[in-house]
C-alpha cells in the first residue's frame, strides 16, 4: 500500500503509549484509546508526503485515558513539526478515512489491556467468540454474547472457534455483505491463526443445506428456540452533504475563549488569516480546526480541546467528528468546502483553466497522444481519451426523433436544439465509444427528454459500451472541442433544422477562445461592449461586414484561430480592429463606458482539488451515498453505482450487477450533489456515465495502478465460497476446540 501505518495503544494503568503488534491492526478494545499515525505519499512515486494522526476513543474508555490520548496527540503533532492533520475518532462513528486503513474491517473487542486482556497472539486457538458483522463498504465486527439471542435475520455473524470460523449469513443479507464477511473471516484466519484455521459458510435461509456446520453451531450455542430477531437498520451515513457551513474565529486575547462567526458558505480562502485559529462547522456533522502558522503556541496547542469545547457549547453529539490541521497541511475535505483554494507556489499547468469573464480562459498545449498512454493520470487530469482523430457522427433531435446532421455543418450547435454526438476511437485494437449529449439552453423540455431517451437507444445499439457524457451548453469539455478541429461554433439561440428561418439578430458577436484546432471554440455572446475583455479575440458579424477585435492580452496563435473561425462564418473580407466598435463613445453628452474586463482576479487559476469517491447503493432498502477515502480500484463494487468527483467532472460508474433503481437515482443524486455542495459548485459541471469494463483513460487515470483485467480474474462471492472447502471434521469441547 502507499502508506505506512503505525499504531499505539494508551494503556489504562500507566497511561503510556504501548505499540500494537501489526497482526492486531484493526482490532480495538472498547475499554481503551488508540493513536494511529498514517504517512502517505500525495502522489505515486513522489517524495511529497502527508501525515495524519487519529486518536480513537473506545466506548468504555475512561476520561483519564481520553485525556492522556489527547496529550500524546499534541506532543506527536509538535514532534512532527505541526504538519499532521489530527482526527478524533469515536467507536462506531469513525471517519471514512480511518476505516480506509483497515480494508477488511474493524473488530471491536470487549475489555481492555488494563483488564488483563491482550492483543492478538498468532497461532492461539483456545478461542470462542461471536462477531456481529455489519456494513458493505466499511465493515465493522463487534464481539457479542455467544448465544442465538444475538442473531438477527438481516446481518452476518462469525462464530470464531479458534481452528474454525463459521460464517452465518442472515436470510436478508445481500451479496456484498456476504463477500465482505468472507474477506474478514479470511483475514482472521491469515493474520491471527497463521493460515491454519478453516472457514465454513451457512446460508441462514437454507440451513438444511449445511447439516454438519449447523451441528457444530448447535453444540456451541445450544438448540435454537423461537424466531430470530428482525434486522437491525444500518447506521445512516451522511449521504446528504451539509450546505450550511459556517466559519468561526477563535481567540483568547481577553483571557477567555471567544468564538465569533466570520462567514457562511460559500467560503473563500482569503477569509483565513495566518495569525489566527478558526473553527469550521459543517452543520454539526463535523468540526474542523484550522491553525494559522503565525498563531500563538497556546492557540495552536489547545486547538483540539477547543474543538471539543465547541461541540459541547453547541450541544452537538459527543461522537461528532473532529479534524485539526495547520496552515499548509489542510485535508482534502477541508479544501473541498471552499469555493476557491490555491496552494502555495502553485504554478500554471498543462491546460489548466482560468476564469475570465463569463467564459473560462484556457491556456492549452497540444497533446502528445503517447503521453496519455504513458501517464494515465495526465489523461484523467486533462480529460482527453486520445488525440481526437477518431470518427464523429452527429444527430439533432427533430420531432423527438434522431435526424442525422449534414457533415458539412459539423461543429455548429444552436441553443434551441439538442444533439447527440457519437465519437468512435480504437484502444488496443478494440473500438471504444463516447456518446456526448449536448443540450441547448433554449431547447424545449420535450427535446431534452427525447435526447436522453434516444441516447439510451444508441447505447443499447452498441451493447452498452458507450461512455455517456452530459454536455451543458457553454461547458463543453476539452475532448469535445478537439473532435471538431477548431470548427466548434455555439449560437446562443435558433435552430439548425433545414427549412427553418431563424430570427434576424442583426449583428452577432462571438468570443473566440483557443490557440490551435484542438482547443478552439467560438461562443455567441451579447452584442454589447460589456461582453469584451482584453484577453481574447472577438468576432462581430453584421450583414455587410465581419470585424475581428483583438484584445491586448491575446496571443498570435489566438489571433490566427480567430481568423480561421471568421472564415467559417463568412467568406466576406475581414476587417481587423484594435479599438472598440461597440457601445457609446465618450462625448460631452455620453458618460464614459465601463472599462473592459481585464482585472487580474479574472486570471486566477481554478482551484485544484483531490478526487472523491462515493458509493451509491440501496442494498439496505434505502438509497444512500457513502464516501470512500483513499480509494482504489478494489473499492468499485460490481453491485453498486459509484460517484467519482474530480471537481471539473462528475463520473457515474455503473457496476454490472447494479440494479435499475440505483442507476436511476444516481443521476439525480449527482445533480443534487452539485446543487447542495457547500463550495457553490457549478450546476453545469459535466456528468459522465461509465459502465464497468468500458472505462476510458479519463476515468481510470484517477486510480493508481488500474488493472483492465481485474473483473475477469477476480472471484465472486459464490466462487470464493466454493473454494473454502469442507470443515465438517470439527469436534467442539466445552472450553477448547480442535480438529480431529
From TrEMBL:
Q: Which domain of life is it from?
A: Eukaryota
Task: Supply the source organism for this entry.
Answer: Cyprinus carpio
Q: Which UniProt keywords apply?
A: Actin capping, Actin-binding, Calcium, Cytoplasm, Cytoskeleton, Repeat
| TM annotation in the entry | none
Q: Which residues form the Gelsolin-like domain?
A: 15-98, 141-209, 260-335, 402-481, 520-563, 625-699
Q: Which BP terms from GO are recorded?
A: actin filament severing; actin polymerization or depolymerization; barbed-end actin filament capping
InterPro entries the UniProt entry points to: ADF-H/Gelsolin-like_dom_sf, Gelsolin-like_dom, Gelsolin-like_dom_sf, Villin/Gelsolin
The molecular function terms in GO held by this entry are: actin filament binding; phosphatidylinositol-4,5-bisphosphate binding
User: Family per UniProt?
Assistant: Belongs to the villin/gelsolin family.
Entry GO terms, CC: actin cytoskeleton; cytoplasm
Family annotation (SMART domains):
GEL
Q: By its UniProt entry, which Gene3D superfamilies does this protein fall under?
A: Severin (3.40.20.10)
Q: Where in the cell is it found?
A: Cytoplasm, Cytoskeleton
What protein name is recorded for this chain? Villin-like
